[in-house]
Design brief:
The chain contains 10 helices and 4 strands; from the N terminus they run ααααββααααββαα. The protein is of the alpha+beta class and 443 residues long. It is elongated, with a radius of gyration of 35 Å. Mean pLDDT is 89; it is low at 1-8 and 10-15.
Length: 443
Amino acid sequence: MPRYLLPLPSCLLLAGCLLGPDHVRPATPEGATWYEKLPPSLARTAPDRAELAEWWTVLQDPLLTKLVERGIANNLDLRMAQERVRQAGAERDVAQAELYPTLRARLLALEGVWNIDVFGGARRRIEGAVADLRASQEDRRDVLVNLIASIVQSYVDLRSFETRLAIAQKNLDAQSETLAIASWRAQAGLTTALDVEEARANVEQTRAALPNLRAGAEDARNRLAVLLGQKPGSLAEELAAPEPIPVSPAQVAVGVPAAALAQRPDVRRAEQQLAAETARIGAARAAAYPSFALVGSIGMQPSSFTNYEFQAIGGPTVVQVLYDGGAIRAKINAQQAVQQQSLDRFQSTVLRALEDVEDGIVHYSEEQNRREGLQAAAASAQRAADMLRQRYASGLVDFLAVLDANRSLFSLQDQLAVSQSQVVSDLIRLYRSLGGGWGTGES
């Protein structure tokens, strides 16, 4: 007797069985706590779902909140992800239809076929389709998480360029004043033309930085418009007024690794993809076993020239593949390889997720230290530049000291603005790594 016929009696007695492995969530190496830890001054208790779902509101910027809401409503990538969910739902319905009889009508007859899912091939296909649907739902959530992070990041980029542009313009004004002093002193014979040219070179160098900063701000506005499902340039009037860089909260909650993995849509999606491919192993194995069906028809046959009578015929059918050149076994092997790839992908996704959070913690923490150092340095540079400018006007120091002080001040102020925006960018990165941006009212 062929090996695949051995379970047949028991399956029939049970009115159907399921072949192949059942999905079990693989163990994950998340650990109890994060390796990198926020300093006590920055850390607080674990975030709740509502906080993660609307994490951008901690920046307390009403305009940013409105932009995020509009992006969620109008972003085209998010709409496409939603359509993929709808498609997966329809494909699940197709798979579920296999469990029901098929009726076809033709002239004077009605035919029906009911394939009985004895070995669970159809049910495994349904399992796979349901898991595909769940994976598509997680994919939409992942698109949402990244969309929100991109909107907030583009907004922060815009405010960063505006702040740096204001700093450059302020320094340009101060350097122009120094140029005027050097020109006056040269005309009075108190200094040489060299001081004037060096002052002019400093002014023009600062002026040359303005176009790139303006272009960067415009790029950020255009990026925001596209993320909101609008054409580039459509937000120019709404975002014309410069605003400061949003300020990150005093403390951030990161929770524990297990909670982060449970929250992240990419990890959840990878698990559902694994579940789908695991179910399809059973569907592939079921093809090696007999298939059972009930086939019947009801038709009208003429009993005389003027009368018709109904006739019904039908009965069970059994079909068994006896030889296919090893095709079924090859399909099973191929599906097992696909399932193993999905397992490896899940484990890789988990590791990358843990890496994202660890990196996010350390970058957010260390950038705070960098910002504090730059704040102190910029304040000192401002005081030094002011004093040297006054002393130069009185002829107490040479122009080289003033020039160096101006350059140092501009550089430090620009670095400080970049660091301020980088702190917020690291906060965005951290919340994205925690899967923030979805979850309110969802399971």
